[in-house]
Amino acid sequence: MFRGFARVWTAALPSRSLQKKPRSVVIAGERLAFFRDSSGTPHAVADHCPHRGVRLSLGRVKGDCLECPFHGWTFDGQGQVCDVPWNPDAKKQNLRTVAVPVEERDGLIWIYTAPLVSSSPPPPLTLPATLTRPGLARAMLEVTWRTHWTRAMENMLDWPHLPFVHTGTIGRDMAKAMTPTTRLDIEIEKTPLGLTSTIAIDGKLQPGSLEFCKPNMMVLHIIDTPERQFCMHVAVVPVDDVTTRMVVVNTRSFLTPSVFNPLFALSNRKIVGEDRAVLESSFPSEAPPPGDELSVRTDKLTLLFRKYWFDELRGPTAPQALPILLGD
Ligand code: FES
Ligand SMILES: [Fe+2]
User: Fold this and answer.
1) Residue 289 DSSP symbol
2) Last residue of a domain, one of 70, 89, 122
3) What is the pLDDT averaged over residues 246-274?
4) Residue 328 pLDDT
5) Global model pTM greater than 0.85
6) What's the pLDDT at 224?
7) How far is the CA of 106 from the centre of ligand 1 (A)?
8) Could you tell me if 284 and 154 lie in one domain?
9) Order of strands across the sheet with 108-112?
10) Which ligand 1 atom sits nearest the alpha carbon of residue 71?
11) Are residues 264 and 204 in the same domain?
12) Angle, to 10 degrees, between the axis of helix 300-308 and the axis of helix 149-156?
């Protein structure tokens, strides 16, 4: 389960994209049905009914449970069967499906990529401070790319592409500074959540910084002064071998009324669209072992991600989310 992406917390959805109607979302090869119970708390269960396999997300929420559209069995947020119509004698305690741990924080719904087992809770979800700081306004966007998530993640951590792909937007200043002899240096430091990096052009430190928060979030600090903060977060969510869904969140400490959100969402869409045009052409779709492609000094941040991917997520010793269906 969740092959190559097991036992990690990931943003799954913007909160407001899950309303009364259940929603089907594929994450790392697993199709999940998200729904909100009567108190609004979100849950996620496997999106195929354990009775005859149809999609639970096509059903409806009844009380605190999700009702299957085929024979009306209902499932709670822990995956436990609550009702089996026509069968008052059914041994419901033995009937369950797989649920995964879910949390709703700072405008996003997060999941832990392993079956929910009450005797073995997941590690705590830790978020970047730029998402949790009070008083920030947020603009959100979901975008799907036709590429493997590792290519999309590396793109998000790639400083040198900015003046080429984002000439008129976030790469404008780097484009102006670039001459045939200009030198780019990338400084990287470890952080509790992953890595952070800054750049110097011909020895001069540039404003802004770029963070990698394991397993799949990029945080670009575009403006980061005590008076003013403007940050772009992108959760790069694996879907399948050739599809990635990006959940983009801009946070800002200025122009905070929500009437400005569409404007910032539009700017997110433009920037991410610039990347998409190039990235979807990557071959192979999944980032290969480092030795299979040419790399130079300024690729060190993306190579550190690639090492993390091969050593900790994808590799033969990667944590597995199995066994499933064993319940508690
Ligand atoms: S297929 Fe879901 S209740 Fe029968
Ligand atoms: Fe980019």
Assistant:
1) P
2) 122
3) 92
4) 40
5) yes
6) 85
7) 35
8) yes
9) 9-14, 108-112, 102-105
10) 3
11) yes
12) 140
